[in-house]
Amino acid sequence: MAPRVQFYHNAENPLALACELASKAYASGRKVALRAPDAALARQLDQLLWTFEQQAFVPHVMAGTPLATETAVVIGHAESPTEWPHTEILFNLADDVPPGYERFRMVVEIVGPSEAHKQPARARWMHYKQKDLPLQAFDAIRREAL
Predict the structure, then answer these.
(1) How far is the first Cα of the chain from the last one, in angstroms, to the nearest whole number?
(2) Which of the residues 34, 42, 48, 100 has an alpha carbon 20 to 30 A from that of 83?
(3) pLDDT digit string, tens, across residues 114-140
(4) pLDDT at residue 26, as a whole number
(5) Does residue 14 contact residue 142 with C-beta atoms inside 8 Å?
(6) pLDDT digits (tens, 9 = 90+) for 15-34
(7) What ranges make up the beta strands (E) of the chain?
(8) Which long-range CB contacts under 8 A does 113-119 form with residues at least 24 apart?
(9) DSSP secondary structure string for all residues of 109-126
(10) pLDDT at position 3, please?
């Protein structure tokens, strides 16, 4: 089954939006893969998941660790090939099309407000469109479909 693809455009803080969406997915019983552009942002994402909401606990680990298969939220990054233990939802914060995205039920692309974020996002949109995947676009600020 081909994945559904959602784009959240104009995210003022892509990491914070990723944490919020991952927390909601976890709260509804879903397993999540978070893909950062690099190791430094993956570590920031890890730290932010501990602190972004005082009343929420989102269990998470870095990809490749012994508990990854047992943990609902797994963080990886584009600099290192990641074998994701879950295939439910992939949140992509990197500029490229995630390798192996086809295995996921849903891919969520989070796009920042700058042209440097938008250009690669347009290429990813065209890639998914050429694959005839169902696409949805949302405004990250207003949280409504475009």
Answers:
(1) 25
(2) 48
(3) 999 999 999 999 999 999 999 999 999
(4) 95
(5) no
(6) 999 999 999 999 999 999 99
(7) 4-9, 32-36, 60-62, 73-77, 89-92, 106-110, 135-139, 144-145
(8) 113/10, 113/11, 113/12, 117/14, 118/9
(9) EE--SSHHHHHHHHHHHH
(10) 97
Residue 35's DSSP bridge partners are 76, 92
Which distant-in-sequence residues (6+ apart) come within 8 Å of 1 by Cβ? 105
- Token couple for 64: 């490749």
- Two tokens, residue 100: 């192996």
pLDDT digits (tens, 9 = 90+) for 52-109: 877 778 999 999 999 999 999 999 999 987 889 999 999 999 999 999 999 999 999 9
CA atoms within 13 A on the CB side of 93: 28
Distance of alpha carbon 43 from alpha carbon 137, whole angstroms: 28
